[in-house]
Every structure is written in C-alpha cells, then in structure tokens.
Design goal:
The protein is of the alpha/beta class and 522 residues long. The strands form five sheets. Strands 3-4-2-5-6-1-7 form a seven-stranded parallel sheet. A six-stranded parallel sheet has the order 8-18-17-9-16-15, with helices on both faces. It has four domains: 169 residues, P-loop containing nucleotide triphosphate hydrolases (Rossmann fold); 181 residues, Rossmann fold (3-Layer(aba) Sandwich), CATH 3.40.50; 58 residues, no CATH class; 93 residues, Ribosomal protein S10 (Alpha-Beta Plaits, 2-Layer Sandwich).
Length: 522
C-alpha cells in the first residue's frame, strides 16, 4: 500500500518499479479505474518505455484488443512488424489478459468504485482479483492512492499489506487551501450568483485574469435532474424504471440514465394539465451554460459520459486542456481521478451534500475520497491552488476532516462505528437480489429466502428491502444483505448458501425469477 497525498509523485515511483521489473524480463500490468486516466498516463509511460506499452480498455475495437491479447500470449513474436508489449496499461478488464510472466501489478487509485464490476456477471473487484492473480504468478502488487479504501487501509494497519506513506508533494509543491462556501447563509443574504457562491465566482474571475485554469466538479450529468409541475408537484418518470427522467438540453430530451428511454419534454403537466413546469436541480450541462453566461470570454468545456462517447473524445478534451485551449473544465467524477494539469489554480466542488447524504454506510468514506481527490487537481506545480467546497452543512464532520487534512484521524473516527454495527472491514457483505417482472413474485420469493436464512444468520441479516431504485428495465428488485464474520470460511458460507438457494428453487419451480449474488458490493 503506497499512501501518498495527491501530487506526491506516485507515478514517478511506479515508473522506477516498472523499470526494475522489465529489466528482469517480466511483464507489468498497470491498472487505472477510468479510461480518461489512460489517455494522459500513456504519454508519460511511453515517453520512458516506448512502444512496449499496450493499452487495453472497452473503447478499443475487437481487432485492437486481439492484437494486445496475442502479444501477451506471445503469438505475435514470429510475425513481421508485430509489437510485443511488456507493459499493459488498462482498466479492470485487462486483468483477464493471458499473462505468462507477470512480475508486477500496479493498482492506481485503488480506492475507486470503478474497479468493481457491478453488472452484468461476473461481479468481481479488480483490486481483489489482481491480488489473487499476483499470487498465482508470484508477482508483486502495489496499491497506490491518496485516499485508501477502509478495507485496504485496515489490512495495511494489521500487517496484511506493507504500508509506505508520502506526506509531501513532489518538488516542494504545496497543498491547496480549502475554503468552505456556506450556501444556506449566502442564499439568505442573497450573495450567491445562481448555483455558484460569490467566493467561487470571484476566484474564477481572478484565475482567468492570471491566465490560469479552473475545474468545476458536479457528479450529475445532464441539465436538470428532474422536471416538476409548480401547481401539483407532478414529476415525469421513466415507464421502465423507478426514476425521474433527466432533462438534457443539448438534445432537448428527457432521458432515463438506467435504460435509455427518452421523450420530448412535455408542454403540460401529466396530472393537472397546466403548463407551469420547472426544471429543478443542476447537472453538468446547466453548470456549463451558467459559466458561459457569467464568463462569456472564457473557453468552457464539459467532460462527462455525454461528451466522451467516441473513442478519442477523452484524449481530445485532456490534450486541449493541457495545451491551455480550455479555461474552465466542467465535469463529473472523471475529472477527479489522478489527472495531472500544470495550470489549474481553482477547483470548485459544487454540491458535496449529494454524496454526504446518500443512504449508504460508505457515504462518508466516498465523500471524503471524492473531495480530497478533486482537490488534488489544484496547484500541482509551482502555484498554490485553492479549492472551494459548496455545501449547506459547513459544520459537517467529513468536511472538518477534509480541512484537518488527516486521513488517519478520519479513518479512526469512522472505523469504530463500522465495528459496532458489523460492517466492512470487520465483516464481508453478500448481497442477494431477487429479480422478476412481477413485484408479487419478488415479494414472495425474497420473503421465503429471508425465512430460510434468518435462523442461520440471525441479526447479521438485513432485509428483504426494496433498494432506492426498485424497478430497472421493467424488472423489480428486492435485496437481502448478509454480514459474514471474517473468521468464517468462505467455502462453508458458499456451500451453506448453495443449499438454501437449491431448496428455494426446488420449492418454486413454477415461479419466474432470477437470483443475483454479489459478494463485497460497493
């Protein structure tokens, strides 16, 4: 575990280690959580190692991925003009390449949720799978991050992993200052400029005057999260999923981010018939529009799923930003992860409350990681950066920990609560989801399963409950959470669950349903 603060030069250490492993004639797998990260890293890695670096992720065509596969397998070695890749830089799917002489696996930003494959099966965590893969090859594993996941840090503190800390930025660069913008207070005093606090607007103005760059982060794409009737509060929902439709101004459509269903925005309310509809909340599209109104001479760009669908979209955006052709970059979590820009002096986190108030035992951990990671994009060279965090709860404990800039203190404040309520890293969680087109079948089957498991797991079982989004693509979901003590054998638990699931299926041969099992959900 390499726990180095943002900008501490972790990539330089990776390069040195790769050099050593390549000199021994072995292969290196360098995992990153997002495709956006590969586009910037590849230039830095290829500058040192040349064409021996291959890239592997889902934006590549099948032919391009087959070329990497054959190179790793060694089938290209006898062909004229064939490439041989000793280093593979990729996202989680790169784990399954046919390595035959693996010496090192680097897992950059190891805390990131993107390493978990949620859907479809196989549901695996690339970090855990990489550690297992390294065991098969007798290779080394390096987990690098500024904000370790609690599970990994727990393992490091209990001597399961080695632990190295770097507490200073590379080249004497200083950490950014963090300023908390109290949105509630500003709204009462009418100081805010729409969705931006007056402090952030002033900071952007100063940065642009000095020819410096700005990153604005909002973890929600689209223009507005929902549309509401002012008279009766009716909200248009997806017909296939249990979610409100999100307005995208660029396409002038209301879209569902789960199934892709979309419609023209209605001209009148579907309940009372009035035409008094309003767009509520804000996503990256609205931020982009409002910034362009406030700073008409600034060059503004947006980085989210909508603007990066094409193969080279990430590269074009990042290259333009690095060259200084973009003054203000608005983005979702893509802009928070490991990117290294020289001239960013201001970072704005526009609504941290969304993450802080999410009903999940990991919400505080995720919020802390998100704020620290996006803050780390500021002031990475000679200039000192400033981070502005907009919130309605400036006194929140997580925000105070961010200001204190002490990860260990934050970890210790949370870990006691995790132990008290039997959550990871003290237990492992298995999520059982009953899925069917018939909500009655979901209710019936999930209750039967709960009745079978209750005598076995007792208070370590939660549910069955509908999740936040109970219907996706015309399928209803109901979940049971099992907390498994670490001392229990995984094989015994698996066999026990298999027996109970076999019994359930035998008793419900005529029912049409699926049972999804996810170990260690994030």
């Amino acid at each position: 575990m390499l726990h180095g603060i943002t900008g501490s030069g972790k990539t330089e250490i990776y390069v040195e280690l790769i050099n050593q492993v390549i000199a021994e004639g072995k292969q290196v797998l360098y995992l990153v959580p997002e495709i956006a990260l590969t586009t910037q890293l590849i230039n830095r890695i290829r500058a040192v190692f040349g064409d021996s670096v291959g890239i592997y992720h889902s934006k590549f065509s099948e032919n391009e991925r087959v070329e990497i596969w054959n190179s790793i397998l060694g089938e290209n070695e006898n062909r004229l003009n064939s490439k041989h890749f000793n280093i593979v830089l990729g996202t989680r799917s790169a784990l399954f390449l046919p390595f035959n002489n693996l010496g090192l696996i680097i897992i950059d930003e190891e805390h990131d949720n993107s390493y978990k494959q949620q859907d479809p099966a196989p549901r695996y965590h690339a970090r855990d799978a990489a550690i297992y893969l390294a065991g098969l090859h007798k290779a080394k594993v390096l987990l690098g991050t500024a904000t370790p996941s609690f599970e990994s840090y727990f393992n490091a503190l209990h001597d399961k992993f080695g632990l190295v800390r770097i507490n200073e930025r590379f080249g004497k660069a200083s950490l950014p200052d963090t300023i908390i913008c109290d949105l509630k207070k500003e709204t009462q005093q009418q100081q805010n400029k729409g969705i931006f606090s007056h402090q952030l607007v002033d900071a952007i103005k100063d940065a642009l005057a000095k020819k410096e760059q700005v990153i604005l982060f909002q973890n929600r794409r689209g223009f507005a999260p929902y549309t509401e009737c002012v008279n009766c509060n009716w909200i248009p929902h997806c017909v296939h999923c249990d979610v409100a439709l999100i307005y995208h101004k660029q396409t002038n459509r209301l879209s569902c981010h789960y199934c892709g269903y979309n419609i023209q925005p209605p001209s009148s309310c579907g309940a009372c018939g009035t035409n008094n509809l309003r767009y509520k909340g804000f996503g990256t599209e609205k931020i982009e529009e409002e910034i362009e109104i406030l700073f008409p001479s600034a060059k503004v760009a947006r980085m989210d799923l909508d603007t990066t669908r094409s193969k080279y979209a990430y590269k074009q955006l990042i290259d333009e930003f690095e060259l200084g052709n973009i003054d203000i970059l608005v983005g979702t979590q893509m802009v928070t992860k490991g990117l290294d820009f020289d001239h960013v002096s201001v970072v704005g986190v526009l609504n941290v409350d969304n993450v802080l108030n999410f009903p999940d035992f990991r919400s505080f951990e995720k919020a802390y990681q998100l704020i620290v990671q996006v803050s780390g994009r500021a002031g990475r060279k000679n200039k000192k950066g400033t981070v502005y965090i907009q919130t309605n709860h400036p006194e929140h404990a997580v925000i105070n920990h961010v200001l204190a800039d002490d990860y260990l203190q934050f970890y210790q404040s949370q870990i006691n609560e995790r132990e008290q309520f039997h959550y990871p890293p003290f237990t492992r969680i298995i999520e059982l989801s009953v899925v069917s087109k018939d909500s009655n079948v979901v209710n019936d089957i999930s209750q039967q399963l709960a009745n079978q498991l209750k005598p076995l797991f007792g208070g370590m079982m939660l549910g069955p409950e509908f999740p936040l989004v109970a219907k996706i693509k015309d399928q209803y979901y109901k979940r049971i959470l099992l907390k498994i003590n670490r001392e229990y054998s995984p094989k015994q638990v698996r066999n026990l669950l298999k027996q109970e699931i076999d019994t359930l299926q035998f008793n419900n041969k005529k029912s049409i349903y699926r049972l999804q099992i996810d170990a260690d959900p994030v």
